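Work Package 3 committed the consortium to producing structural models of liganded targets before the mid-term review. Because experimental data for this complex are still outstanding, the team generated a predictive model from sequence and the ligand definition alone, so that downstream docking and mutagenesis planning could proceed in parallel. The input record is reproduced below exactly as it was submitted to the modelling pipeline, together with the SMILES string for zinc ion.
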Amino acid sequence: MKRTVGLWRQTACAISLIGLAGSALAWGAEGHKTVAAIAAEQLKGTATEARVKGLLHASETLLDASVWADCAKGFIYCHKQPTPEMQDFAAGNPDHHGYHYTDVPIQALEYTAGSVGTTDHDVVQTIKQAVFGLQGDTSDARNPHHFTPRQSLMILAHMVGDIHQPLHVGAAYLDLDGRPVMPTEDDMKQTGTEGGNFLFIGGKSRVLHGYWDSDAVKTLMRRKQAKTPQALAKALLADDDTPVVLEGDLDSIVIAWANESLAAARTAFEGVVISEHRTNFKDSQGDLAAGWAVTLPQDYTKTSSDVASGRLLSAGKRLAAILRLALE
Ligand SMILES: [Zn+2]
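The resulting structure, written out as tokens with the ligand in place, is given here.
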């Protein structure tokens, strides 16, 4: 960050920093469906494809599965009423909004379980638990929320996308002078920006998080002349369709994905200018939210869509690979 000065703390303000936590969406529907379409392409003709089909309803595809976990969060997340199955999942998983991200400070070199910004149900831990759930493991140690195989498929189809969205792993925390700070458990709520949900582009309602969810993907679709997620998946695979091979234990595989996103999040903040004061902005719902205005560098449209291109392709290939790892 070039300039991050002059944050004032709203100690007595009624506007809660926590109130917006649920607005973290990760890749919008296009991004998630692109990831799923890449995976579906790479699973064609495999035993895993058949196993996945067996867990889906007749009318569902892996693309539908890729947005299930967002739709389970409620109407505003996918403009559809959650199904009874989603409502059951939400009722049985009161922390499910937190399954979609982790908030590692962007200054950290790597994801470390138990460090500030991580939780025992963050996106890293949830992916691991869903791999065991997909295998039918119901043990408290490996699958503490007792995800069923079908829920596990829905979770993986979505969260493998989420963990590749840079701002769903790397988070900016700002001190009283507006500079990036390594947060402590005590001040993380005051210093946190919720994955960029409190960073308002040009002081308007669009937040940096949403920019990475959707705008970067839409730009990429335009650049690739892709009108649908399937078309974008084909275009990305045309550049490099080599399947990935997952090596090492599950823990290190998933942490490596998070660490890449952490590095990408640092790129996402390069050249971003943050306002000198925290103030109140109207968010996309029209509610007032405390945050910072940010100005993006001129070439941000290109650099962000370049990063999104690599992250989406990796996510799709890795989704295919982890489903094979779990199911074959
Ligand atoms: Zn999500």
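Reviewers should note the following from the model. The chain has a mean pLDDT of 89. These observations will guide the Year 2 experiments.
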